[in-house]
Amino acid sequence: MYALIFSKISQLSSQQVSSTGIGLFRIFYGLVCLQEIIFLFYFNHLIFDPIPFIDVEFPTITFFLCLWGAVATCIIIGYRYQLAVTCNYLLWIVFVNFTAMQRDFDGGFDLFMTGAGFFLLFMPGDRTFSIDNLRYKLSTPFLHYNTYSKPTVSALTYYLPVWVCLGFLYIDSDIHKIFAQHWRNGLGAWLPSTQPYYVSALDMSFFLNNEPLQKILGYTIMIFQATFIFFFSTRRLRVLFLLIGIGLHLGITLSLNIYPFGLAMLAFYPLLVPFAWWRRLSGILTAQQPVLIIFYDRQCPLCNRTVLTLNHFDIFKRLDFKNAQDYAANCPALASIEKQMLLTDLYAVNLNNKVYSGLDTYIQICLKMGYLFPVGLILRLPGIYQLASAKYRAIADTRTRITCTAECAPALPLKNNSLYTAWFEHYSTIKPKTFARRLSKVAVALLILQLNCSIHYGLFYRLKIDLYQHPITAVIAKGSSALLMVSRIFLGIAPHALYLHDHFSGYDRILAITYTDKQGNEQWLPFVNQQGRLLAPNWGRVQSMWANIAVTPTIDDQRVRKFIMKVTAFWGDKIGLDLNNAEFQIKLKNINAPNDWVYDQLHKNMASQWVTVGTVQWTAKVIAYNLPYNLNAK
C-alpha cells in the first residue's frame, strides 16, 4: 500500500496542470461558508441563546460572525489568502466545538467543511481568480501584462483533497448503509424524500412514485460511494464519476432541505473536471481577437497599474493594450491627436475605428468585458456620468510620470508566503524523493485515521461487538475513541451514518406549533406548516435540531420541551408576539417511514390529520408547559 501511494504521489507532484479548478473550488467553498455565516447571523438568537432574545449568553456573537463573514469574503475574492484560510479553519473549529452548534444544531456538514478548510491551508487557491494574484502583478507595474504566464499547479493538489475529503466520506458512509434495510432494498434516497420534515418546497412525487427508478437510484448511490475512492482518478471513468456525483448532490440540494450539505459537496467537483476541459472551455470563452484597443502611457505608474488591473479582470480577453508612445503613430484613428494630449488620457479604438477617451474609455471597457455591462450602463446615466467624469479628471490631471528607459529595472515582486509555495513547490523541487516519501507517510496516517473511524463505528458498533468486555480490547477501544476525537476536531474525520435505519425506525410522529393571535384565532407558526414541512429558512442546521434531535423515534420529554421553548421564543419575537402573555398549541400527527416502497407515501404523510396534544403558555417571559399527552405513545 505504501509503495503504491508513494508511486502515485511522485507521479502527480511532478505533473503541472491548470490552476482553474483550484480557483473555482476556493470560490465555491467560500460561498458555502458565507451563506452559512449569514444563516447563523439570522438565527443567532435561536442557536446561541439559552432562551432566545431573553437570556442572551453570547452578546458578542454577531461581532464574531461578521468577522467570520469578512474572512469568508476574503476567501471568495482571494485576498490575503493564507491568512484568510487559516482564520477560517480556526473559526470552524471554535464554532463547531465550543458553541451549541456542536450539540444541538449540527449542520450535517460542519466536519466536512473543517476537513476541506484544512486542505485549503496547503492548496494554491490564490493562483487563479484572486486579488492576491493581481497584487503580485501590481508589485511590478512596469512589466508588460503578457509577461505573466498562466499559473500552473501540481496535479497532486487536485487529487489528494478529493481522495481524503470525498473518497473517505463516501466509503465510510457506504459501510453504514450496508446495515440499513431500506438502503439494502434500494430505497435509501426514497425514504427521506417521503418524510415531511426532510423535503424541500419542490414536489418530487413524479420521481418518488416510480419504484424502478428509485431502486436504480438507491443502488447507484451505494455502488458510486463504494467505488469512488478507487476509480475516480482513472481517466476513462473520471467523467462518469463527475457526472454522477454532480447529479446526486444537486438532487440533494434541490429535493431535501439540507441544501448546505449538497452545496458543500458540489463545491469539490471542480477538482474532478478533466484538465483538458478547462483548456477547451478557455478556448470557447476567449475572444478570437480583441474588440477594443486601449492606448496608455507606458511611463506612468498609475496607467501601468490600471492596465494590469483591467487585464486581470478581462477574463474573456476582449481587450488589448498598446503603448501610446510606440503604437499611436501607426493608428489612423489617432492621427489627429497630438502626442502630448495622447499621454494625458486613456484612449480606446473599437473595431469601427471609433475613438474614445477619458471616462468614455472606461465605459467602453465595461461594455466590452461583458459581465461588467451593467456598470457601463450606470456610468452613462445623467448625473452619474458628470460626477464620474469630474472624479476621473481630478485623478488623471494630477498623476505623475517618470522617466523610464527600456533598461528600467522593475521592483521586486511580492513574495508568495503561502504554505503551498513554501512546502510543496520549493521542497518538492529541491528534494522530490524526500518530499514524496514524507507526504506518503502523511497520506498513510490519514488512511489509518479513517480506518480507525470506519472500523470502530462502521463495523464493531454496527455488529454490536462490545470491546469493553475484555481489558485488552477495552484499552484499544479507549485509544481508538481518543484518536477519533482528535481526527474529528481537526480533520473532520468522523462517522457518516446519515439517514439510516436507526434514525427512521419508529419515526411515526411529528410535531408542529401554532399560536393564538390577538383576535383569538389559531395561526401556524412560520416553522412547520400544515403539511408537516419545515418552512424556509428553517432548513439546514435548524431542521437538524428539530427533526433529528427534538423529534425522534423516541421523543425525550426534557429535550423536546427545551426546543419548543427555543422555537416559540425565537419565532414569537420575530412575528411580534408579546411573550408576557402568549399561548402556543402543540400539534401532533402520525406518519409512516416504511422500509419497502409505497406509492405516494409523501402525500399520504402530508395528508395525515393533526391533533392538539398540549399547550405552551408564556407569562412575564417565563414558559409553562401543559403537555399531558404521552408523546412516546405508539
Automatic annotation (TrEMBL):
Listed GO CC annotations: endomembrane system
PANTHER family named in the record: HTTM DOMAIN-CONTAINING PROTEIN, SPORULATION-DELAYING PROTEIN SDPB
Name listed for the protein in its UniProt record: Thiol-disulfide oxidoreductase DCC
Keywords: Membrane, Transmembrane, Transmembrane helix
Topology relative to the membrane: Multi-pass membrane protein
Pfam families from the UniProt entry: DCC1-like (PF04134)
Domain of life, source organism: Bacteria
